[in-house]
Each structure stands twice: as C-alpha cells, then as structure tokens.
Amino acid sequence: MSKPDHHHDGRAGTRSRELFAAASKVIPGGVNSPVRAFKSVGGDPPFVRRANGCRIWTEDGAELIDYVGTWGPAILGHAHPEVVEAVQRAARDGLSFGAPTAAEVEIAELLCEMVPSLRGGMVRLCNSGTEATMSALRVARGFTGRDKIIKMDGAYHGHADVLLVAPGSGAATLGIPGSAGVPELVVVDTLVAAWNDIGAVQALIEQQGEAIAAIIIEPVVGNMGCVPPRPGYLQALRELTERAGIVLIFDEVMTGFRLARGGAQELYGITPDLTTLGKIIGGGMPVGAYGGRRDIMERVAPVGNVYQAGTLSGNPVAVAAGLATLRILERERPWPELDRRAQRLCDGLAERASKHALPWTGTRVGSMFTGFFQHGEVWNYEDAKRSDTRLFGAYFREMLAAGIYLAPSQFEAGFLSIAHDDAAIASTLDAADRAMAAVAAAR
Ligand code: HOZ
What we know:
Elements: H1 14-26, E1 48-52, E2 55-58, E3 63-66, H2 81-92, H3 102-114, E4 122-126, H4 129-144, E5 148-152, H5 169-174, H6 184-187, E6 190-193, H7 198-208, E7 212-217, H8 233-244, E8 247-251, H9 263-268, E9 274-277, E10 288-292, H10 294-297, H11 316-332, H12 335-355, E11 361-365, E12 368-372, H13 381-385, H14 389-401, E13 404-405, E14 414-415, H15 422-441
Parallel strand pairs: 3-13, 5-6, 5-7, 7-8, 8-9
Antiparallel strand pairs: 1-2, 2-3, 4-10, 9-10, 11-12, 12-14
Helix pairs in contact: 2-11, 3-11, 7-8, 12-15, 14-15
The protein binds (4S)-4,5-diaminopentanoic acid.
(4S)-4,5-diaminopentanoic acid binds next to helix 5.
C-alpha cells in the first residue's frame, strides 16, 4: 500500500488505480453501473473495501464520510449490526429456496401497512427497482388494455427498454439521450412530459388519453439531482389520471421509507394507484417490489394473465435485510431528525457557497438533497441542465480529496443517514469550506 493506513484523501491511490485498470480489461468501463466510473467528474474511482455507519474505507486506506449511501438504501448507515445479524441468521438457513417463506408474508404485510397505496391492496417482490417499474407498467397496461405511458423528461426508472427515453441518472451524467439497442417500436408508446408542468400532461391526455395506460413519476425526482414537485402538482396529476382512467404510478424506489414512513405519498398526502419500491426495502440487498390497488394487482399471474416471475424473488437473505431495516425504522421513526440534520447540512453548504461567491441552488426534501452549481431555480430537467458541471466536477474532486464521498454527478441526489451525526456534518461543512475556497480560487 502506497499510503499510511488512515488518511482522508479519497482520491484513487495506487491500489485503486491498479484495480480500475484491471477492471477496465474485463468489465465495460471498469464498473458494473455507469455513474461509478467518474466519467463526468474526472479521475479514477476509489475502490471501496468496507463501510460502517456514515463512513466508507477505500482500498487506499482513506476514511471518507459517505453521502452516496449506496445510492439510497443506507438510511441506517452502513452495516447496521441488527441488519447484519439478521442477514447472517438467514444465510445460515439457506441462501435461496425458490419457494414461499414466512418472512415474505411478514414483509408483504408490513409493506401493505406502511405504504398508503398498498393498504388494502397487494404487493409483489422482485429483485431491483428496474424490475419493479418494468413490471408495474406491464400490469398497468394489462389492466387498462392501453399501450401508451407517460414519463417525465430527465426522470429515471431503471434501465428497462420501455423507460430508456429521456432518462436521468447515468444517462444524464454521460449526456446519452436514450440507449442504443432499444428498438424504436418498443418506445413509440413512451410519451415524455417536462417535470412539474401540469399543462404538458394535460395536453397529452387531451390528445391521447384513451390510449394512455399509466403515468409513472418519481414523486420527488432524484435522478436529475433532487427536484421536488411544485406545490399542487401531485394533486393535479392525481385528479387528471383519475378522470382519464390512467394508472398513476409513484416510483418510490428512492423516496420510499426515506421521506416518511409511507414515503413521498404520505409526505404529500397523495395516493397513487401503484407504487414501486427498491433500495431501502432491501436494506442494502437486492430487493424491489411493486404493489397497490387490489383490482390492479389481481391481474398479476398466477391470479391474472400479466406475467412476471423471478428465481430469486423474495430471496430469504435479502428479505431478512429488508425486514430488519424496516423494523428499525418503525421503532426509531427517524424522519424528523433526518430532516433536521439534512437541513443543517444543506444550510451550511449554501452559506459556504455564498461566502465563496459560487453559484449554488440547493434543493432538499427530507434527507435527499442536491447543490446545483447555478443561480436559477431548479424545477425540471431543463433547469437542472443549466448547472455548471465543470464547477461541480472541481467541487467533487476537492471534496473527495478532503474526505467527503459525494455522488460523482451533478444529476444525482445526495443521501443522509441516521449515522450522520453532528460531528460528521461539522466535518463535512469544514471540508466544503476548504473545497469551495479552492474551487473559487481556481475559477
Ligand atoms: N442509477 C443509480 C443512481 N441513480 C446508480 C446506481 C449505481 O451506480 O450503483
């Protein structure tokens, strides 16, 4: 190892650079998900050796405060002892059965109790957020007998063909408008509207309402950076879809159990027809779920004729991690405290940006947040794209060098966990002060 065992410079050292070079020979881009490759911020990614609480340790021996939180799941911090214990216990009894288990019933009941749109309804477990959104759309189409769907410009719902139209997240980061390999025919029924523009949705419904099966949204967008709904927007969407017989799907893969016990739908008091879940529901293991109205979910096979399946769906180890996580959340109800801490962090970041005369527009809902490097308000993808990504890259690199691990893209949300205590937040703000001073000096 080239550096002493304990330092805070998170930039890739010799070991990470060697690993990245080796990875790049056998894995496309050296990573198993595009944003991880640091393409838009420059430099090589540090490789992670382990994580605990709000911290990760790299292969180069750096200890970093983590705001990626494995892209959302780590709301309790990494390697929470109760979750790890639950996983170990489950693993000892067998890793996968491909047959029903008691734990699946328990988690399904808990989900149907916690998430408003699932109350009195049903839920199906799968393995990822991508599977959840893809399957929710299929059942919405099967239920309505209609083909068209509406998604929002710059929103991201995983990488199913039908949803890779104007996607956010990694595609936004890399400036890829869609994806090669997605046949025209598969996306001709995917309509796109600007986020927060109710007029755009209204117009699409007026023209093609009879053919529209579903509208899928991130109720608080997290994949163009964090972009909240405008006041009244979700309510208006609910009314429009109800009138037109369109299935309203909230993709709560990021927001579920993060913004409130019952997710964004509880926070804003709007109940969709279907909800997709992922991330926190698996407590760090691969789990997704979709569920909602009973009459819609009864269309899913083997009750109905909408097919969806999976060898590892409801996997006992993954479900154990998810159940343990949800139970801790139930017990600790950390949402008001998360909100206070995230506010302290975001207020502090905004203050420092202003001190160093950097353009900065902070957005935040609960423990999801983004600092956009621009002065304008950010209410949709066009707004988000006006950010100075060169400045973001410089800030990102300075923060990493100062021991703070941020998502390597202007177009991803930051996530805070209950393990981010006052000391971690204070260290982060100190680092941000130095990072922003350096960025401002180099402008
Ligand atoms: N698309 C994910 C964030 N929105 C990134 C997942 C990952 O790279 O792990």
